[in-house]
Amino acid sequence: MDWGCVGQMNLGMALWGALSGAETRLRKDHFDELLHLFVREFQRCGGPLLNPDRLRRHTVLYAAAMGVAWLLDAPALLLSRF
Q: Does residue 35 contact residue 55 with C-beta atoms inside 8 Å?
């Protein structure tokens, strides 16, 4: 069984993990709608009311940081494989 990233994480990380596998068009065309849906469902299930703009910022910053981290690691990964 793969528990993948089980443990505490920020919501930006969790959302990007879920959205990163989606079609680019879905994220591009419906990102804000998906964030607002998440905020509503999160509160409906007992969580606090979240600020969608802040959640968007955290999610985008996390995605950008992971993109940079991947790019920085790419040369070492390529050298180890070829």
A: yes
Q: Per the domain annotation, does 4 fall within a domain?
A: no
> In this structure, are residues 32 and 52 in contact, taking their beta carbons and an 8 Å threshold?
yes
Name the residue range of residue 33's domain.
Answer: 11-81
Give CA–CA dist 44/42, Å, rounded. 6
- Is the pTM above the cut of 0.85? no
* Dist CA 4 CA 10 (whole Å): 15
Calculate ∠ Cα 26-2-23, nearest 5°. Answer: 10
Residue 14 host element (H or E): helix 11-19
Would you call 15 exposed, middle or buried from its count of C-beta atoms within 10 A (0-12, 13-18, 19+)?
A: buried
Q: For the chain, how many structural domains are there in total?
A: 1
Range name among 3-7, 22-26, 44-48 with the lowest pLDDT average: 3-7
Residue 3 lies in a domain: no
